[in-house]
Amino acid sequence: MLRSVFAELEHKNLIRLDNEDLFEVIKPYAVALAAYLGTLSEQQRQSFRELRGVQGVTRRTRNCQKAIRDQISTFNPEGLDRFIEEQDAQTNLRGKEIIDRIERTLQRVVLEELKRECGVDDSGWWTVGVPKPIRVRIRQQEEEDGGKRKKESYFNFIDYSKIAQQNWGLFQGLLGRGKTGNKEAKVSWMNMVNEKRNVVSHVSSGVNLSIDELSQLEEVDLWLAKQVQSSSEIVDDGVDETDE
């Protein structure tokens, strides 16, 4: 914080000042920061301390800089405006809502397609459709908690990418994104979403999704919804033709 104050006051040629004068120049910033810290509740102080790592320290610094800005409107450290913009947009909260919706959609359509193609019994969709390493891991998890949940509830987000690649003929048209590249490249959007999922799931890291990252998620969410809708319309048309 002191470094950012000195950077802000660099034009005043502080090196010419003695200690007493230097103190008087930076005192308003110290008073503003102290006032902010003094207003934090015990819970807020604990949350402040729990922001860990480089990103956590950066988040604490930005919060303190913003508090000074609220008292001294001319205080404008580099990057603070962008931080405030992202914070105001509540990028992490909105990002989590989008990611949760994407994950629910993936689980639903992957299960529907596997059961339709391979059969609804475990010997079908589960054994034929799900890669063995995933099945082994889930069996272990089931044993650990007594099998209280359905198998699909143990899927990790990135499992859907592996399932899609193993059953590429089934999922290429539905989950493959982009006109060029192999199957790994066409499902790489799931890796991106999973990375952002890790960000919004670990609040103690103090990391915010950027506006651009939120826009990426929104684009994927819209694209996936259109893909699923188109797929449903194709299936419905097929059923209608059969009925006729």
What features would you describe in this structure?
The protein has about 240 residues and is mainly alpha-helical. It folds into 2 domains: about 1-90, no CATH class; about 90-244, no CATH class. The protein has helices at about 1-10, 20-40, 40-50, 55-70, 80-90, 90-120, 120-130, 130-145, 160-165, 170-175, 185, 190-200, 210-244. Helix 9 packs across helix 10. The longest helix is centred in the C-terminal third of the chain and has 33 residues, at about 210-244. The N and C termini lie far apart (about 75 Å).
Number of strands: 0
Head-to-tail CA distance between termini: 73 Å
Order of helices and strands: HHHHHHHHHHHHH
Number of helices: 13
**What structural category characterises the helix and strand content?**
mainly alpha
Q: Give the overall pLDDT as a whole number.
A: 90
> So what's the overall shape?
elongated
Topology of this protein?
Elements: H1 2-8, H2 19-39, H3 42-50, H4 53-71, H5 80-88, H6 91-118, H7 122-129, H8 132-144, H9 159-166, H10 168-175, H11 183-186, H12 188-201, H13 211-243
